[in-house]
Specification:
β1 (12-16) and β2 form a beta hairpin. The protein contains 6 helices and 8 strands, in the order ββααβββαβαββαα. It has one domain (4-198): Gcn5-related N-acetyltransferase (GNAT) (Aminopeptidase). It is of the alpha+beta class. It has an 8-stranded mixed sheet, with helices on both faces. Bound molecules: coenzyme A.
Length: 200
Amino acid sequence: MNDPIFSRPYPRSLSLGKASVDIRPMTATNAGAFGLFIQNMPEHDLLFVRRDIRHPKVIAAWMDALEHKRFVSLAAWEDGEMVGCGAIVTDPLSWSPQVGELRVLIAPHWRGRGLGRALIQECFAIALGFGLEKLTVQMTVDQVAAIALFEELGFSAEAVLRNHVKDREGNVHDMALLSHDVAEVQARMQTYGIQQALER
Ligand SMILES: CC(C)(COP(=O)(O)OP(=O)(O)OC[C@H]1O[C@@H](n2cnc3c(N)ncnc32)[C@H](O)[C@@H]1OP(=O)(O)O)[C@@H](O)C(=O)NCCC(=O)NCCS
């Protein structure tokens, strides 16, 4: 994987309504802030990640992966508090080296203010820089806000895996896999003005 993240200027400051956030690549030094961010997350929202990211071992593994550039994650900060993050997960040694999985998570008090869309757009830019050919995103089918947002950005449902996710109470949920090929993503980026945003 190349290191195109540095071809984009970070930190970037985004004005969203009356507030503003700084977007910066997440680093291993952000483990404490990431732990606090996750602690305040509704239980159900954490279903979208495959592992229990509240567990210290999982946080440590994530930070180690960041340190060794096995994936890239961006964090949004307001006054020193992490209020959102996005990530692109790839596996160059797998049978799908051309595929990147996007993940995004926004603090509840920051939702509905455009931060999710902005972080996804930033992640698009990085994924395109990696030369990825296909992007996927996974969530439980009841994550209505997330599905609406990704569909608006050109993703479409590719599969539903029945009873694929089990929550802590043992309830199972269907999982949706949405995808988009990069050529179409690029066209959408132009349609939605993301290209101009990236050139700022
Ligand atoms: C999905 C998520 C990332 C959206 O973040 P956000 O910052 O609230 O999103 P935005 O404010 O940028 O909203 C963008 C669009 O999302 C959709 N949306 C947001 N909240 C919504 C809601 N409650 N119901 C329906 N659609 C909603 C709308 O289409 C909205 O467009 P609009 O602003 O023109 O109305 C956030 O809700 C979240 O962290 N959810 C839990 C984790 C998750 O499901 N991640 C996705 C899978 S990786």
